[in-house]
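Study this chain:
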Amino acid sequence: MANIDHKPSKYMLNLLHVLPAFASEEDAVINTIVEINAGSINKYEIITETGTLKLDRVGFSSLSYPFAYGAIPCTWDLDNDPLDVEIVNVTEPLVPGTLVEVRVIGIMKFIDGGEVDDKVIAVINDDKRTNHIQSIEDLGEQFIKETTYYWEHYKDLKKPGTGKVEGFFGVEEALRIIKECEERYVKEYLPKFN
């Protein structure tokens, strides 16, 4: 699991700023902090400044998350949040706030209310049940349909028509965007605190 290069402290570390994005870049394995379990209509979000998990809102409809969901440490996406991750094919619910090493299998490009809000798609790295999943195509056509439907309709009762899926892309594109978000974290987010 993740090793944190940090002296012991009596204060709780904010893993969003302590852990690197990659647990193993060579193997496309990233660190992810779980925010939401599949089946939830509650939108939990890690407060970037403190690392505290907060109930951001209760969903406006009965549409529940069809996958576990989390954030990648030391990344900053164009929506001014850490880069998001959909953790798919999870057998047992994950505890929100848990650090999980996941293997990247692709990315979904998404526009939410006019802002880029891409979603990395990944499986738990050390779950043997997912070893055969190497790409989004391995999840099947129904996964793409359900995921697209979820993101394009989850806000319909609050802000209809604000979500638009722009396509699903492979591991190479996902890794490029993760690295881009790492660079943005260093250039745009970190200077606010120096």
Notes: Residues 38 and 65 are 5 Å apart (CA to CA). The chain has one domain: 15-185. The helical segments are 15-18, 141-153, 171-189.
